[in-house]
Design brief:
Residues 184-249 form the RNA-binding S4 domain. One of its GO terms (molecular function) is RNA binding. InterPro entries: Nucleotide-bd_a/b_plait_sf, RqcP2_N, RqcP2_RBD, S4_RNA-bd, S4_RNA-bd_sf. It comes from Lactococcus petauri. Keywords: Cell cycle, Cell division, RNA-binding. With 265 residues, the chain is of the alpha+beta class. The chain folds into three domains: 3-86, Ribosomal Protein S8, Chain: A, domain 1 (2-Layer Sandwich); 89-166, Alpha-Beta Plaits; 174-260, Structural Genomics Hypothetical 15.5 Kd Protein In mrcA-pckA Intergenic Region, Chain A (Roll). Helices cover 26% and strands 29% of the residues. The protein is built from seven helices and 15 strands. Strand 5 (123-129) and strand 6 (132-138) form a beta hairpin. Helix 2 (15-31) packs across helix 3 and helix 6 (186-194) packs across helix 7 (198-206).
Length: 265
């Protein structure tokens, strides 16, 4: 299948990633080598797996080690036998004086990127719970983190590598809800679900604070479909589970899974 025939099945903004995946797979097939990806979001994993289904390749995922949102994938020839070390992944716990400080996701992310110059794709999930903080990283960068990051915010920090079995368990904060909307436009779904004004929803779209299936979107009148995931910075996420049809008054009835961001007091 030509690349042009492949592209037509995906969003135009995904072309660059598709080219990268095809290059990875060509390298595995032509050189009988093993490719380990950087951390991928769920949409990127979905694209990779759909392309891999058409090849005689093996796919291994860190989801088998730990249930996280961001995932590393190994693409390998048929003869390859999995070695977990090939995932190049480590779980770091951040040690700090939690009696005096409270680390935030944005502080941790900013410190890792700003103090080391690494790409965001070399970091996995950042997990915070009850004064503890952990982060998944590419293992070959451990020394860089340990040597360069001495403070996060005002807190002095140290890093300890933990076995995956000691991953912090967090409670799901999502709720199921049936929402009525006048149409399937993304601005109206955001406004109705998070109970904000439509003007604010439009402003968030125009301010590039909204992603649809992990891609930034600014069009307020974009039509959302069943299965789509909407992420709104500062508010949370909306997963469209089912479109239940119209009410007698002509409104769309949709079933959503809503995950709201909670700010600690």
């Amino acid at each position: 299948m030509s690349h042009e025939n492949i592209y037509q099945h995906f969003h135009p903004d995904e072309k660059q990633f598709i080219d990268r995946v095809l290059d990875w797979m060509d390298r595995v097939e032509n050189n009988y080598s093993v490719v380990t990806t950087y951390f991928l979001n769920p949409r990127e994993v979905e694209i990779l797996e759909s392309l891999a289904n058409k090849r005689e390749l093996q796919i291994f995922s860190t989801q088998d080690i730990a249930q996280t949102e961001l995932t590393k994938i190994i693409i390998a020839p048929e003869f390859y036998q999995l070695d977990v070390a090939d995932f190049d992944i480590a779980l770091l716990e951040i040690l700090y004086a939690k009696k005096f400080y409270q680390l935030k996701h944005s502080q941790i992310l900013g410190s890792f990127l700003g103090q080391t110059g690494i790409r965001r794709s070399e970091l996995g999930d950042i997990i915070l719970s009850e004064g503890r903080a952990q982060v998944f990283v590419s293992k070959h960068l451990l020394e860089i983190f340990q040597n360069n990051i001495k403070k996060i915010g005002s807190a002095t920090v140290q890093f300890v590598e933990k076995p995956f079995e000691e991953l912090i368990e967090t409670e799901a904060a999502s709720v199921m809800k049936v929402v009525l909307v006048s149409s399937m436009r993304i601005d109206k779904i955001i406004a109705s679900t998070f109970e904000i004004s439509r003007n604010l929803a439009v402003n968030m779209l125009q301010s590039r604070k909204v992603k649809l299936n992990y891609l930034e979107i600014e069009k307020k009148d974009f039509t959302v479909e069943q299965g789509d995931l909407i992420s709104v910075r500062g508010l949370g996420r909306i997963k469209i589970l089912r479109i239940l049809g119209e009410t007698k008054k002509g409104k769309q009835k949709i079933e959503c899974e809503i995950t709201k961001n909670h700010k600690k007091r």
